[in-house]
Amino acid sequence: MRRAVLACFLLLGCNGGSDLDTGTEGGTSTGAANSDSTADDGADVTTSGTSEVTSTSALDPTSTGVPEPTTSTTTAGDEESSSSTGGPPGPTSAFCECSTENPAPDAGSFEMCAELLPDGSGTYYEPPPYSRTDDANAVDGVPVGMVTSGTFSDSTVYPGVSWSYWVYVPAQYDAREAAALMVLTDGGVYRGGAYETPTVLDNLIAEGAMPVTIAVFVDPGQAQGGQSQRSLEYDTPSDDYVRFVLDDLLPAVTGEYVITDDPSLRAIGGRSSGGAAAFTAGWERPDAFGLIYTTLGSFVQLRANEDGEFSDKYPAEIAETERKPLRVTLLSGINDVDNQFGNWRDAHMDMTTALDCAGYTYRSGFGESSHGDNSHPNHAFGDDLRWLFADAG
User: Residue 143 has what DSSP assignment?
Assistant: First the structure.
């Protein structure tokens, strides 16, 4: 009975959305996407030792070649075994009880339910003010990793497209021991700017909160003529983007390094549409990425796959699919986007409820910043990474 109620709640939830801060352009129900511009997207960001790059984020609503998705729909076993081995209905937690019985999509409802799990694992509510994570500040004596940059344009998944990328290699890297991996979409945003991810990684690795980790920051692809592929790559809920990362990009840009194949030491992440892309990557290939980092995730109706499915399909799929070996962070806020493509805030709550009710290990933050404001995601960044790699650090 509970499973039926949950499925009904999830399926009747958010019906669309856009990653736009402005929400001025229209879209269609067939998957035409709008620009996913944010305060950081499109900003010039620089990091010591690398060339300056402009991270563009204009979407291409007319791109063709939307791929066929591959999704796991494994049938779960009986309820008794699924509670311990994965799959619906999963263990029922206090948050699951609260969120399904009090589904009002507002901060008060989330805060009330989040207080049932106050340890920061699971759900938590964090009001402003938000300041940049202290982990982004350089610390004397902490070894500094090396960042190199380049372009890649030899993709079999997206032919004729080029990508700017950066590779961070920590000072502690030793080829005699395989390193962990982290891939971040909208790479220019994370490489520099407010996040200063190389410095964060320097500090967390030195602290022992993360293993020795090689990070790849990759911007959205640019087609010939400069047309951005961001929406096609990030918003389409299929396995195309993760195939690009695994089969095209990583062998070319990290081939000289020894990186673990253990998915519990391999993370992929991003914000907004990049966050949705990260979840899709882990959902499609949990054997390759067991750690998923998302903030302000676009689990809404921005671009459909060939089956007409949008990224808002995931709450129902999570509820109906055998639990996958994923560890997930999410973050959103009361002022997140609400427009013709959907409501990011509601989608965040739907994702949190689905993950919780299905028994996933997750960390879901909620606050009061807006979609174009990176203050809360940045505030939580260091702790999110500590939590994500807690079992590996």
Answer: P
Nearest of 350, 315, 376 to residue 128 by alpha carbon: 376
CA proximity to 154, closest of 53, 249, 281? 249
What backbone torsions phi and psi does residue 367 show, to the nearest 5 degrees?
-150, -140
CA distance 384 to 377: 9
Query: At residue 126, what is the residue type?
Result: E
Q: What six digits make up the tokens of 339?
A: 């427009």
The Cα 34–Cα 131 span in angstroms is 30
In words, the CATH class of domain 2-14+68-388 is alpha beta
Can you read off the two tokens belonging to residue 187?
A: 């790479």
- Bridging pattern class, strands 266-271 and 180-184: parallel
Please list the residues that pair with 292 across neighbouring strands: 268, 328
The answer, yes or no, to whether residue 44 has pLDDT greater than 60, is no
Question: E strand or H helix at 111, and its extent?
Answer: helix 107-114
Give pTM, 2 decimals: 0.78
Handedness of CA 353, 337, 267, 379 (dihedral sign): negative
**Distance from C-alpha of 341 to C-alpha of 35, rounded to nearest angstrom:** 12
Could you give the CA distance from residue 120 to residue 129 in angstroms, rounded to a whole number? 18
CB neighbours of residue 49 within 10 Å: 13
pLDDT in tens, 280-295: 999 999 999 999 999 9
Q: Taking a C-beta distance cutoff of 8 angstroms, is the pair 284, 236 a contact?
A: no
Comparing 189-193, 198-202, 220-224, 377-381, which segment has the lowest mean pLDDT?
189-193
CB-CB contact of 349 with 36 (8 Å): no
Rounded Cα–Cα distance for residues 378 and 304 (Å): 30
- Rounded distance between C-alpha atoms, residue 72 and residue 283, angstroms: 8
Phi, psi of 269 (to 5 degrees): -155, 175
Which sequence spans correspond to the domains of the chain? Answer: 2-14+68-388
Among candidates 328, 319, 361, which has minimal Cα distance to 73? 319
Report the pLDDT value the prediction gives residue 105, as an integer from 0 to 100: 58
CA angle 386–262–243, rounded 5-degree value? 100
Compute the distance between CA of residue 57 and CA of residue 55 in angstroms, rounded to an integer: 7
Who has greater pLDDT, 111 or 314? 314
